[in-house]
Structures are given as structure tokens and as C-alpha cells.
Fold this protein.
Amino acid sequence: MLGEDRNTTATTNANGPIRVLLADDHTMFREGLAGILASYGGMEVIAEVPNDGEALRLAGELSPDVVIMQVQMPFERAKETLRAMRSFSDPPKVVIVTMFESPQYVRGLTGVGASAYLLKTSSSEHLVAAVRAAVLDPASENAVVGMPRSMLEGAEEGIDSVLSVRELEILLLAARGLSNHQISSSVYLAEGTVKRHLANVYQKMGVGSRGEASREALLREWITIEDLTAEEHGQADWPSEQG
């Protein structure tokens, strides 16, 4: 579970620690990930590289259990790297950690072998859970942190009707009854920016008001009654902060 004690090893690999290869061109972020993984226990970072090309080479040499990598442009390059890793006789699981929130990217990468897709603003608990699930529960569905699966399943290549993570976050707050001013304070955006996001939401959903958008989002299961009432119980933690 996501909130488990960092010292527990009950869910780690019975044959030893989960061996992880990190690939990200930001050294401080990469080192931060290595520290996070080490702090939870049951995982060992066996190599750190700055790009997906090096990740592909070392994955072939070191046979890690999991590769944590960013999406590097052009997008087709990331897909080719994943296809190449999947062709290994003993392919590693791949967890994508990125700033790109496009549903098309999510669908494209999970479709060619990514086990999980997380935004870089996701919590460390989500990252650790995704790594462990990829190795210890390979039959589980791909994890996508930041967007509900029902939205992703409706997305097709090039479609313009899918909400971004930020738009979905603002829609949820609006559905909870927050004013534009309250939303702007909650997500640290200018009130005008919140209004623009809501206008985009209405256009994409084909509605004319926040009430219609809220009802439609509930019908499509993009948000749930539990999401709307979580704040009342001190659990207003979905969606997570997004950049």
C-alpha cells in the first residue's frame, strides 16, 4: 500500500533487492530518486545514466529488474527505446517519470511496454509503489498517476477532447463548490489562469457551466462522489499537486 513504513521489507523481492537503473538528464533529480528508493529499502540502484540511449545499453548489460526513465523528445525515440528493451530475452519493467501529462503519451508508452507512467510531481510513495508493483505484481494493470483510467481509455491519437491533469484538478475543485478565487489560492495560479482552464474544460466537454461540467464528469467517471466529499473528511489529496 502507498502509505507503508519505509523500513518494511515484507513486499520486497524474495530473491534480493529490486535492482533499478535510473535514466534522467537532470543530475539532481536523478540523485534525488536514488535517495528516495534507498530510503524505502528493498531496492538497489545499480546504475544512473543521463539518457535513454545509455539506459538501453546498460539495461542489456546489467539486466535490471526495473528501468526508471524520463520521456526524451522526439516522442518516437522513447517508444523505440521501450520496444528495444521489450525485445530483450529478460526485459526489465519500465517506469516512466516525466513532466509530460498528455494522454497520448501515456497511451503510446504503456502500449509499447511501460509498466507505469508518473508525473514528476507525484509523491515518493506513488513511485515506490509503482516500482514494486511492476516487479512483484506483474499481472496488475499499468499504473497511471495523474489521470483517471476512464479518461485515458477514451483518448485516441490526436484527440482534443481529453482534459489535461491541471484541467481535471481545477474541474474537481470547481465541482467541490470552490470559487475561482478559492481555486486560484489552492493551486497557486492566477485567477485569470483558472478561468482560462475552466473555459478550456467547457469547450472540450461541450458544456456551458461548471455545474454541467461537474455532472458530465461524474457521468463519465472522471471524478467520483468520493472525490467530491473527500475534503470534508480531511482527505483532499486527489489529484496530487501538478506542475
Remarks:
- Residues 18-148 form a domain with the Rossmann fold fold (CATH 3.40.50.2300).
- Residues 1-13, 232-243 have pLDDT under 50 and may be disordered.
